[in-house]
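Reopening this one. Same input as before:
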Amino acid sequence: MGLSPDDEFFALLGLPSDGGQGTQVAAGLVLVDPEEGEAGHGDEPGADAALYLARHGVRVGVDRLPGSGRPVAEVLARHAGDIGADMIVMGAYGHSRLRQRILGGVTRSMIENPPLPVLMAR
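Same output, byte for byte:
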């Protein structure tokens, strides 16, 4: 999920800029095969995004899932179903055409075969 330092994310969801304080707002942040460390997603992958959401009143849990060689879109779709998610919110990112053709793309897969309603932000 891509987050901006302003309140654009909450506006996309139709929430007040306080993240819906006083309402039950909850989110699950899911990372598939995150890379730990300086060159990857930090020492605690997902912690920065979770902290940002928590500061805006969103109850957030972070799930780190192994891909086990499966496509990321498949892992996300299965997990969303397993936890009873209502919607998937994700960033839409592009890669080179060659890389997309060889490896596929999560964004394209979610657009072509969405398991749930999907809100994409770029």
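So the earlier flakiness isn't reproducible anymore. For the record, Confidence is low (pLDDT under 50) at residues 1-6.
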